[in-house]
TrEMBL record:
<dbReference type="InterPro" id="IPR017945">
    <property type="entry name" value="DHBP_synth_RibB-like_a/b_dom"/>
</dbReference>
<dbReference type="Pfam" id="PF01300">
    <property type="entry name" value="Sua5_yciO_yrdC"/>
</dbReference>
<keyword id="KW-0819">tRNA processing</keyword>
<dbReference type="GO" id="GO:0003725">
    <property type="term" value="F:double-stranded RNA binding"/>
</dbReference>
<comment type="similarity">
    <text>Belongs to the SUA5 family.</text>
</comment>
<dbReference type="GO" id="GO:0061710">
    <property type="term" value="F:L-threonylcarbamoyladenylate synthase"/>
</dbReference>
<protein>
    <recommendedName>
        <fullName>Threonylcarbamoyl-AMP synthase</fullName>
        <ecNumber>2.7.7.87</ecNumber>
    </recommendedName>
</protein>
<dbReference type="InterPro" id="IPR005145">
    <property type="entry name" value="Sua5_C"/>
</dbReference>
<dbReference type="InterPro" id="IPR006070">
    <property type="entry name" value="Sua5-like_dom"/>
</dbReference>
<feature type="binding site">
    <location>
        <position position="202"/>
    </location>
    <ligand>
        <name>L-threonine</name>
    </ligand>
</feature>
<keyword id="KW-0067">ATP-binding</keyword>
<feature type="binding site">
    <location>
        <position position="216"/>
    </location>
    <ligand>
        <name>ATP</name>
    </ligand>
</feature>
<dbReference type="GO" id="GO:0005737">
    <property type="term" value="C:cytoplasm"/>
</dbReference>
<feature type="binding site">
    <location>
        <position position="172"/>
    </location>
    <ligand>
        <name>ATP</name>
    </ligand>
</feature>
<keyword id="KW-0547">Nucleotide-binding</keyword>
<dbReference type="InterPro" id="IPR010923">
    <property type="entry name" value="T(6)A37_SUA5"/>
</dbReference>
<comment type="function">
    <text>Required for the formation of a threonylcarbamoyl group on adenosine at position 37 (t(6)A37) in tRNAs that read codons beginning with adenine.</text>
</comment>
Length: 372
């Protein structure tokens, strides 16, 4: 179940949410001059809430130096207050305002992956509002590469705390429509920049230790990090619940559709047979069943709904389509969802992390039976 340690309550439906469609001009005009960007940036400076696209998912932003503004993020999302937030900045030159030092491994990662889908954990100076860090002495920081996000950050001239722009526990939003469905009436504004590109959240790496630690897999893969800094450890919290989260996404049920989700391991025909058998069993029990698969296997399955999240041969398409598919199951009213597992390598490592969070660890190997 989603954690009950919210503490700050939930925001009532009382805001008039404004929405602006923002895209790069073919005439080469600066996005900072777009009326929507200027109005949204002014709202950030006023301590209000603005949802905006990044290259990973849509974020819900507020001035990271204002305790009142940051608290309103937790209220709008219904997010547990012990879950730290990532701070977005427009460039690495702003780090000195926020953190006490950047170790050599952090500098290496920043040079290669910023702007981009990588968050680094650093010791903070205490200049952000306490709710951002959830009492930790460290802070997650990143520079997004999405042009709308960068334009907003530059125009706002504030560090912006921004988790994903969805109700807590639900699949993260990869389109403006997802944000509107979840948060309209709870936030002040939404910048619609079209579908996001990566589709899963940023990779989070703690560089405060002698050997950096992966806290959350994401758009930058483990192999890419190893190529840059050499040795890196994987935090046990990625696979084990119950500890205080050192990074967003390490605690509580996340990314989950309303229907019960099961993940089936294995590969090839054995995996497909088990997926179908589990779906058939649920249908006999009177459930409305959906199957989550890829283009390669979609035509082989039978269920009320069979949705493909991409092509198994192109893992980045699966990451991009995962959350959209989970939301589609909510839209059609699926009560029981059976998903194919993926090999935990490359981008699929991030996909499996999200699926396992959504399924609360409900995974079956190809030869295992589900107990009634």
């Amino acid at each position: 179940m989603i954690g009950k340690q919210v503490g700050v309550g939930e925001a009532p439906l009382q805001k008039q949410t404004q929405c602006w469609r923002v895209k790069e001009s073919k005439e080469g005009k600066s996005l900072r001059d777009h009326p929507g960007i200027q109005k949204a940036a002014a709202m950030i400076r006023e301590g209000r809430l603005v949802a905006f696209p990044t290259e990973t998912v849509y974020g819900l932003g507020a001035d990271a130096t204002s305790g009142e503004a940051v608290t309103s993020i937790f209220q709008a999302k219904g997010r547990p207050s012990d879950n730290p937030l990532i701070v977005h900045i427009a460039g690495a030159d702003q780090l000195d305002e926020l953190v006490s030092e950047v170790p050599s491994t952090g500098k290496q990662l920043i040079r290669r992956f910023w702007p981009g889908p990588l968050t680094v954990i650093l010791r903070h100076r205490g200049t952000v509002a306490p709710p951002v860090t959830a009492g930790l002495d460290t802070l997650g920081v990143r520079v997004p590469s999405h042009p709308v996000a960068l334009a907003l950050l530059r125009e706002a001239q504030r560090p912006v705390a921004a988790p994903s722009a969805n109700r807590s526990g639900k699949p993260s939003p990869t389109q403006a429509e997802h944000v509107w469905y979840d948060l309209s009436g709870r936030i002040d504004a939404l910048l619609d920049g079209g579908p996001t590109g990566v589709g899963v959240e940023s990779t989070v790496v703690d560089v405060t230790r002698e050997v950096p630690v992966l806290l959350r897999p994401g758009g930058v893969t483990l192999d890419m990090i190893r190529e840059t800094v050499g040795e890196i450890r994987v935090d046990p919290g990625i696979r084990r619940e119950g500890r205080a989260p050192r990074s967003p996404g390490m605690k509580y049920r996340h990314y989950a559709p309303r229907g019960e989700l099961w993940v089936v391991g294995g590969s090839g025909k054995d995996q497909m047979q088990k997926v179908q058998a589990l779906a058939d069993q649920a249908r006999r029990e009177g459930r409305k069943v959906g199957i989550l698969t890829t283009d390669e296997h979609r035509e082989a399955y039978r269920a009320e709904w069979v949705f493909s999240c991409g092509r198994r041969s192109e893992p980045e398409t699966v990451a991009r389509g995962l959350y959209g598919c989970l939301r589609r199951f909510d839209e059609v009213g699926a009560e029981w969802i059976v998903a194919e597992a993926f090999p935990p390598t490359g981008v699929f490592f991030s996909v499996m992390n999200r699926l396992m969070k959504a399924a609360e660890g409900q995974v079956l190997s190809s030869g295992e039976e589900r107990k009634a």
